[in-house]
Design brief:
about 375 residues; globular; four-stranded antiparallel sheet; alpha/beta
């Protein structure tokens, strides 16, 4: 499978388990709790995950995280123009699409507090009207929603972003400059806002931003990366707790020489953490969320949003598994066949590949519909 600089497609399920250096406790870590089973010991945590390839699932919930800062207006316009094509590409699926912004500042506006935003029937120069089902505002669209593409386009192109761009001096009171895309996603996944997430549907999160979590990844005073809210592992843990197929896709700024297979998160963050003068930053936290979940990565500066969205729609419709990822350097790895499931012999002694403190297994050929395996590994404490 080719890795490309701007668009990287991994048709995979990537399970990322982070092992922190903590003092031993009888209480399991959040990563341990997210596994199918886990044993905690002074020497480390032994985790088990059942990896099963479901039959193609036509039900999919897609949560778009839309950076609504003023500098995103051009990107919002470009992606809005491609949304009709995206809906056409998934027209054979039973989909739900919802939108949240990166603004988590408290306030009465419907785009504050990381809330799921209502869809807009019209939107021109910051003046808009809400779409309704005849009585109530619409918080997600489906393939049966009348004028779904128009509502999608109107809502992705944020009226508050436009207003803020026209009145920059008043911008801080209109839109928060503290972008927190991961926090928005985590809040809505855990709360299942508006009953959006279906138990039997895939869930894909698509983050679109011209900055990192908390703008530059935690370098601004009073804007630290908060454990439980802003880290890539916080989003992946929230997704893993759903116990179904999930992905995080990112359309963000890429670091120079970006390499999906060898992405160095720490270097990415450190390169920008001391820069508090810029208006745009690399999306380090969003990239790690995508790499660790096996999602798609696209460059926000690309004019070819059609190809990026096409790659995402292709991934949504594929359920094969080609990679299993650990966020620690694992020991005592064991793969076992699950009773009654086919298990190709070449998977019994897989090659463990490591880069930047992470390890993964690549399955070749990929696991396909009906296959199931049990993976057990240990994350040692140091």
């Amino acid at each position: 499978m080719n890795l490309k600089m701007l668009i990287t497609v991994f048709m995979s399920l990537s399970v990322a388990v982070s092992c922190s250096d903590v003092k031993f406790s009888n209480a399991p870590s959040s990563d341990c709790a997210a596994a199918d089973s886990c044993i905690t010991e002074p020497s480390g945590e032994t985790l088990t995950k059942f990896l099963k390839v479901s039959h193609p699932n036509t039900k999919v919930d897609i949560l778009f995280v839309d950076d609504n800062s003023r500098t995103m207006l051009d990107e919002q316009a470009k992606i809005s123009q491609r949304l009709q094509g995206f809906l056409n590409s998934i027209s054979g699926l039973d989909y739900r699409i919802a939108i949240v912004t990166t603004d988590n500042k408290s306030g009465s506006q419907d785009y504050r507090d990381g809330k799921m935003v209502p869809f807009l029937a019209t939107n021109s120069n910051g003046v808009f009207t809400y779409a309704t089902d005849g009585a109530n505002k619409i918080y997600y669209i489906t393939k049966n929603t009348p004028n779904a593409a128009a509502l999608f386009q109107n809502t992705m192109y944020r009226p508050e972003s436009y207003t803020c761009s026209q009145n920059q001096s008043a911008c801080p009171s209109i839109v928060s400059g503290d972008e927190r895309g991961i926090y928005s996603a985590v809040r809505n996944i855990k709360a299942n806002s508006n009953g959006f997430i279906r138990a039997d549907a895939q869930l894909h999160v698509v983050i679109i931003s011209d900055e990192d979590e908390r703008s530059n990844g935690g370098g601004f005073a009073g804007m630290p990366i908060e454990a439980g809210n802003d880290r890539p592992e916080d989003l992946l843990n929230a997704l893993r707790a759903l116990n179904k197929r999930t992905r995080v896709h990112s359309i963000v700024g890429l670091p120079g020489g970006f390499d999906y297979a060898n992405f160095n998160f720490a270097s990415c963050v450190n390169a920008q953490i001391g820069n508090t003068t810029g208006q745009e930053y690399v999306g380090c936290h969003y990239l790690k969320s995508s790499v660790d979940s096996g999602g798609i990565v696209g460059n926000k500066n690309s004019s070819d949003y059609t190809s990026i969205l096409s790659a995402i729609s292709t991934d949504i419709q594929d359920t094969s598994i080609s990679r299993f990822t650990f966020n620690c350097v694992p020991t005592e790895i064991k793969l076992e066949a699950v009773q009654g499931a086919p298990f190709p012999p070449q998977f019994t002694n897989p090659q463990i590949l490591s880069a930047n403190g992470q390890s993964h297994i690549d399955f070749n050929p990929v696991l396909t519909s009906g296959m199931e395996m049990k993976i057990t590994w240990k994350c040692p404490r140091s």
